[in-house]
Design goal:
- By secondary structure, the chain is an alpha+beta fold.
- Helix content is 58%, strand content 12%.
- It is built from 6 helices and 5 strands.
- Strands 1, 2, 3, 4 and 5 form a 5-stranded mixed beta sheet that branches.
- A hairpin with a 2-residue loop joins β1 and β2.
- α2 runs antiparallel to α3 and α2 packs across α4.
- The model has no long low-confidence stretch (mean pLDDT 85).
């Protein structure tokens, strides 16, 4: 029993080093993948997107833990993922301070009219928009002042018949 416990806690220095490098590469690759396809995948929730994220997570987790996963390997991977997340968060804040912009929010519907160019730029189909509007409790086009795909892929719906502060639309493309 002691031997089994020791094997679950043991990891060589080289294994730990290669694990740290592998986690950094996979984190970078996944971040790039999400930067390219994330907005569309988060708005267009389907069986495919759920399966896609599940498989990506499973493959990444298995690859990060190495050939023989141990408790120590799991702790190293978790700690590194937290550190990488914090580092990328700080990097994004720094880049924002020096003028780098993340992808703009896109107005995909303005006063009940679908903006096909913005919809295409967000990588969405009109059918995806209707699904999201139904989920937001919208019963008809006339209820929508603005439907905006945010940079994180979520859909914001501002309803008609309410005063909308122009400042809230700052930085929204397609207006």
């Amino acid at each position: 029993m002691i031997e089994s416990l020791r094997r679950q806690l043991e990891i060589s220095g080289w294994d730990a080093l290669f694990m740290v490098l592998g986690v950094a590469v996979l984190y970078g690759a996944f971040s790039l993948l999400m930067a390219v396809f994330g907005q569309r995948l988060r708005v267009r929730v389907s069986v495919f997107s759920v399966a896609f994220f599940t498989l990506i997570g499973s493959v990444a987790a298995r690859a990060m833990l190495g050939r023989d996963p141990t408790v120590s390997a799991g702790l190293i991977v978790l700690a590194e993922l937290l550190l990488l997340q914090g580092a990328f968060h700080r990097l994004r804040r720094h880049l924002a301070r020096i003028g780098w912009r993340q992808p703009a929010a896109r107005a995909v519907m303005v006063h009940g009219v679908v903006n096909a160019d913005m919809l295409a730029a967000a990588g969405l189909r009109e059918a995806d928009l209707w699904v999201q509007l139904r989920r937001a409790g919208i019963g008809g086009r006339d209820e929508v002042a603005y439907a905006i795909v945010e940079p994180d892929g979520s859909l914001t719906v501002l309803r008609s018949g309410r005063d909308i502060d122009p400042d809230i639309l700052t930085g929204v493309a397609g207006l």
